[in-house]
Specification:
seven-stranded mixed β-barrel; alpha/beta; six-stranded mixed β-sheet; lyase; single chain
């Protein structure tokens, strides 16, 4: 029986375990990336391990999230990251060089390699034939130290593409269609692999758009083959030597197959407040638009930007619309400037933002009260834009640009004649904004620079024999990491200051939570299905750890957040029956008697509700290694003990 692309990538990097769906496998990691919203903590964790030099083939630290500097905090964090990078053998991408996933695709991604990043959209690298996965910062720190990265062996879903996209229908519409069919829960425990003749019609930037937003499926990652299209992209970047062919065997067997005829797709949009609430633009109708934001790691490539410029050329943005555009990298911005496309955007009335994440992470450009914002981003969670009552729609660059002109949500097929975009045969390559690390000898004299906003990693304790605590919070299904630990310009500067950050924990759900949790000293959180979907930010585990959360009991977890809870030493437990969730109320006094012994023995966990007198059985999906991590009180303790 032949292998799929994903299976080949896993097999070639397998350190431990068997490739049986549901089993834990350990993988050798070739490359890592971090960004500054999660990177400061990742490097604090790396420093705590006491390892002199990274042991990966390549590690890159990007500055792209916290670039709005309204105080010293972000600048101090950037300085800290740069000093660690110089000392520990990490390349440093300076502020303004671009969004981590866009730059990594352009300059560093290699087919056939493994990549983990402290950002949930790291699967962007799957567009170039990598096994690229989002992870918590501590997992990335361990990988930088040469440690193995562990995942549950996923099932492989074949999304077979036929036909080719019609004019003004985009790669964004492909992934929106996949989300419409599979939902934000449908990819959990799966890798999405794209096959079929339709793949050949998609450029690398288009493939990367699809794999990027595959994160919203809850999937482990998404991947395309590495073919002549991949080779041409790398050649244009001056990196043809990095190309390796990679394709599924003809007799490869998939766990599931989805068929999509690209020619049948229409321009679509994900409606507030979830990426899988997808309808066609014509179904939604011409709703009034207040704001349009174009960019993010999903849609900020040169191809996307040239399409936008062509639509805007010679026209003016509607007077009721604020249009902002953020090219994804310095390379893209430079080429737009030389081509004249940037002038077309500016002349039309666009506000040009720096090459960074910006509005996607809530870093500026919040829409007006109750406003409708069309965004070429990947997430439209409630409040993520910075405006609690805004309606955020996720669309393609073509839909965004045309709607900015009309002032209402519009189908760009109304433009008639298809766009003719001539992509250059070679890209402008200038890596002068990437700082190389010091040599091992020079690194001895490099000082790591800590700012006053940087606080120590929260301390963890070994798992006690029993846990007794109140249900300090009960929440419903599809709770995102934005609910648990919000983003935005007011909060992100404190990502390296867990004590300060704690006052915002679960603020979207219950503003009294931090105060109540601190008062109790410890607590248990009750959640619904798909708890912790969204960003890979480990702060959504570290802040509850700081506040005293000992366990989270849910109907089901999202992959990365579950791993982050384990790394933090917080028990991730599941109700044996979903109906048990309904019987527990917030403020009930709960007890996990003999939890340590039950975990050690591989038994179900007993939950006693001391308020109601009822007893329940809890299950867990933990490997033996993960049990050891929890018993040790978290991955940092476990790693120290292992070293």
């Amino acid at each position: 029986m032949g292998l799929t692309v994903a299976q080949k990538l896993i097999q070639s990097h397998l350190v431990s375990g068997e490739m049986t769906p549901g089993a834990e496998v350990g993988l050798r990691i070739d490359q890592t990336l971090t960004q500054d919203a999660t990177g400061t903590m990742a490097y604090l964790e790396f420093e705590a391990m006491g390892i002199e030099r990274v042991r990966t083939e390549l590690s890159v630290a990007y500055i792209d999230h916290n670039t709005l500097q309204t105080g010293f905090e972000n600048a101090d964090d950037h300085r800290f990251i740069q000093s660690v990078a110089k000392k520990r053998g990490i390349r440093f991408s300076r502020p303004g060089n671009g969004i981590c996933h866009q730059v990594h695709l352009e300059r560093f991604g290699k087919p056939g390699k493994t990549l983990i990043g402290s950002d949930s959209h790291t699967p962007t690298g799957g567009g170039i034939g990598m096994l690229a996965m989002g992870a918590g910062g501590l997992d990335v720190a361990v990988a930088m130290g040469g440690g193995t990265y562990y995942i549950t062996m996923p099932k492989i879903v074949n999304v077979r593409l036929t036909g080719r996209l019609s004019p003004y229908v985009a790669a964004k519409d492909v992934i929106l269609e996949v989300l419409r069919r599979m939902t934000v829960k449908g990819g959990v425990g799966k890798i999405i692999e794209y096959t079929g003749e339709g793949v050949l019609s998609l450029s690398v930037p288009e493939r990367a758009t699809i794999t990027n937003m595959g994160a919203e499926l809850g999937a482990t990652t998404s991947v395309f083959p590495s073919d002549d299209v991949t080779r041409a992209f790398l050649k244009a970047q001056g990196r043809e030597a990095d190309w390796t062919p990679l394709a599924a065997d003809e007799d490869a067997v998939y766990d599931e197959t989805i068929e999509i005829d690209l020619s049948s797709l229409a321009p679509m949009a994900a409606m507030p407040h979830m990426p899988d609430r997808v309808k066609s633009v014509t179904e939604i109708g011409p709703i009034k638009v207040d704001q349009v934001c174009i960019g993010s790691c999903t849609n900020s490539s040169l191809l996307d930007m040239l399409k936008v410029a062509a639509i805007l050329k010679g026209k003016t943005v509607a007077p009721t619309v604020s249009l902002s555009i953020a090219p994804g990298s310095k390379q893209v911005l430079n080429m737009l400037a030389k081509d004249g496309a940037l002038a077309d955007m500016i002349a039309a009335g666009a506000r040009i933002l720096e090459s960074a994440c910006g509005p996607c992470i809530g870093m500026g450009q919040s829409p007006n009260s109750g406003g409708v914002s069309l965004r070429t981003f990947n997430r439209n969670f409630e409040g993520r834009s910075g405006t609690a009552d805004a309606g955020i729609y996720l669309v393609s660059p073509e839909v965004a640009a045309y709607s900015a002109l009309t002032g209402v949500l519009s189908d760009p097929r109304e433009l008639g004649e298809p766009l003719h975009i001539d992509m250059p045969e070679t890209f402008d390559v200038n890596d002068n904004m990437i700082v190389l690390p010091a040599s091992p000898e020079e690194a001895k004299d490099v000082e790591i620079l800590y700012g006053p906003n940087i606080k120590p990693f929260p301390t963890t304790d070994k798992l006690p024999d029993s846990i007794e605590a109140k249900a300090v919070l009960k929440v419903g299904d599809d709770i995102t990491t934005d609910h648990i630990m919000p983003a935005g310009a007011k909060i992100l500067p404190y990502r390296s200051n867990i004590p300060y950050l704690s006052q915002f924990c679960f603020g979207v759900c219950d503003k009294t939570f931090p105060e109540r949790c601190k008062k109790e000293g410890k607590g248990i959180v009750i959640g619904g299905a798909n708890y912790g979907q969204g960003s890979s930010r480990e702060h959504a585990a570290l802040v509850p750890l700081y506040l005293g959360v000992k366990a989270v009991i849910t109907k089901s977890f999202a992959r990365i957040h579950c791993a982050n809870l384990i790394n933090a030493g917080i028990l991730p437990l599941n109700f044996q029956s979903a109906s048990d969730y309904d019987e527990i109320s917030q403020d009930d006094l709960l007890c996990l008697p003999n939890v340590k012994a039950q975990l050690e023995n591989g038994e179900d966990i007993t939950l006693e509700d001391r308020t109601t007198g009822k007893t329940y059985r809890l299950t867990y999906a933990l490997s033996e290694r993960q049990k050891e991590i929890l018993l040790a009180g978290g991955l940092l303790n476990f790693t120290r003990e292992s070293l």
